[in-house]
Design brief:
The protein has 292 residues and is of the alpha/beta class. It has 2 domains: 83 residues, lambda repressor-like DNA-binding domains (434 Repressor (Amino-terminal Domain), Orthogonal Bundle), CATH 1.10.260.40; 190 residues, Endonuclease, Chain A. Helix content is 55%, strand content 12%. It contains 13 helices and 6 strands. A 6-stranded mixed sheet has the order 3-2-1-4-5-6, with helices on both faces. Strand 5 and strand 6 form a beta hairpin. The radius of gyration is 21 Å and the shape is elongated. The relative contact order is 0.12.
Length: 292
């Protein structure tokens, strides 16, 4: 099935969870522990339902509607939204479920639903801008415990992300990228792969939905101490942003509003010190010429 179906399912779950959280506050139950005690269920289960990570069962839905004393009209509306969260419509990445982690699958769902991405990368290029050979080299290093078949499957997933988000999308993802000049200079996969990647970068950076900017070496103090991160925004203003940050422990999901505001400020600061789009393309051209 298409990405839009998967995104509809995920957004229904996120929207439903946010509505439950609001109803909890309005009803006087301040904590999930209070609700869990009243229903006789586990706090972690309710937390996962509110964050859209788990489907709410019909039994728990009925219990929550009673507990929060939701009026019949509003209850009917929520029942329809609840039904949407339970529709099983397999997304495009289903055939790759054996190599996709639960965290990565959740990221794919958010990306498929997003309208805009703000991404900062220090040493590698954003996934949606990578060639197959570049992605193969990066994945081979990042997932050394996987077999060659599994690595190739993950590279295929990255290629499909590009198709669904940019190449074949009716409404392409609006991509705002800031990268360091070092990410252009690093020879990932050898000289041939490097030159091929730079050529591809020049081509894809002209895509109308892509804004690519480079932080030059002379501004290194502004960018060197910040780890890679990505912020996703959604077309529905009621759905909050979500961010992903890289650490030694892997990708971290960030949805706390204070952290998100800080990341937005960071991205604006990085954009301010980065070169313009045209100047950034000139640096890519000069980097490619050095490889000739």
């Amino acid at each position: 099935m298409g990405a839009s179906m998967a995104s509809t399912l995920l957004m229904s779950r996120v929207t439903f969870g946010r509505t439950l959280r609001r109803l909890r506050g309005e009803s006087g139950y301040r904590t999930l522990a209070d609700v869990a005690a009243a229903l006789g269920c586990d706090v972690s289960l309710l937390s996962r339902i509110e964050t859209g990570r788990r489907v709410c069962s019909p039994h728990h839905f009925a219990q929550l509607m009673e507990l929060y004393e939701v009026p019949s009209g509003q209850r009917d509306e929520l029942a329809r939204l609840h039904a949407d969260t339970r529709e099983q419509r397999p997304p495009w990445w289903t055939p790759y479920s054996e190599v996709i982690s639960a965290q990565y699958e959740r990221f794919l769902g958010f990306e498929a639903a997003a309208s805009t991405v703000f991404e900062y990368q220090v040493g590698i290029l954003p996934g949606l801008l990578q060639t197959e050979a570049y992605a193969q080299a990066v994945t081979g290093v990042g997932f050394t415990s996987l077999g060659q078949d599994q690595i190739e499957a993950l590279v295929e997933v990255r290629g499909l992300r590009q198709r669904h988000c940019l190449v074949e999308a009716e409404t392409p993802l609006k991509c705002h990228y800031v990268i360091t000049q070092a990410a252009l200079d690093f020879q990932v996969g050898g000289q041939h792969t490097h030159r091929e990647q730079l050529t591809h970068l020049l081509e894809i950076s002209t895509h109308p939905s892509i804004d690519l900017r480079v932080v030059p070496y002379e501004k290194g103090e502004q960018a060197a101490q910040i780890g890679a991160f990505m912020i996703l925004q959604f077309p529905d203003e009621d759905v909050p942003d979500v961010a992903f940050g890289e650490s030694v422990a892997g990708s971290l999901t960030i949805d706390d509003q204070r952290d998100l505001r800080r990341l937005h400020r960071l991205f604006r600061s990085l954009s301010d010190v980065a070169l313009s789009v045209d100047e950034s393309r000139n640096i890519i051209v000069r980097t490619k010429k050095k490889e000739s």
